[in-house]
Amino acid sequence: MSAAFLNLSAYRFVALDDLASLRQRLFDAAQAAGLKGTVLLAEEGINLFVAGAPDAARAWLAGLRADPRFVALDVKQSVSATLPFRRLKVKIKREIIRMNQAQVRPAAGRAPALDAATLARWLDAGCDDTGRPIAMLDTRNGFEVDAGAFDGALDWRLAKFSDFPAAAAAHRDALDGRTVVTYCTGGIRCEKAALALRAAGVDNVWQLDGGILRYLEQAGGRHWHGRCFVFDERESLDTDLSCA
Question: How far apart are CA 184 and CA 196, in angstroms?
């Protein structure tokens, strides 16, 4: 595949209090760089997926990271032969991923994060390092799960992420006695989901660090079936993160 365009995907839960001026600054810089995609801003942080010419995308990212609040931004990168977005949007929202649970505040502290290599090893063994069985919990929408998922994952048929708290309450017993690993595409939904479960009294909850995309990048397609749905014109990615 020709690396004509570089795709940048990232989020960070961090307190932001200058949303209007930050929105304008990021929009102006991205527009000048010729980038397309979406940047969401809220008091709880930033969520972005943008794409453009590689040098321009890297320069925009460097400018973003010049802000101390974003210096530790963990960015997943991929390449594509075509630009997967048609427009540039920088929006201010109430939440960068809507859950409607004000008490869930990832910027105040994350749930434990599980790296791809450790998860693959646990799934190979069928249990965590203490011998507890694993419950892979998909926090994505049902149609995303239909495209591809971890083998044997719990799928609560969510229509939207804000349905997660009610679904968790309804299916609470399915998690008892198991080590729960929440996962989603890039990590943002499973980060909130893990905190919500812990706040509800569920023990032994982890989030998959970097989500499916980081897992496929580092561990390949082990214990995974199908493709990974993405919210851009590529629609879904294979286990090598290509859209072919």
Answer: 15
Q: Convert the pLDDT of each residue in 123-177 to its tens digit.
A: 999 999 999 999 999 999 999 999 999 999 999 999 999 999 999 999 999 999 9
Q: H or E element: which one contains 206?
A: strand 205-208
Kindly name the residue from 127, 184, 228, 243 that is annotated as catalytic: 184
β-bridge mates for residue 10, sequence order? 48, 75
Closest by alpha carbon to 92, among 32, 36, 16, 35?
Answer: 16
Give dist(CA 219, CA 223) in Å, integer: 10
CA–CA gap between residue 2 and residue 24 (Å, rounded): 32
| Alpha helices by DSSP H, the chain | 19-32, 54-65, 116-125, 142-147, 164-170, 188-199, 211-219
Told to judge if 243 belongs to the known catalytic residues of this protein, a careful annotator would answer no
Domains and CATH numbers, the chain: 5-92 (3.30.70.100), 106-237 (3.40.250.10)
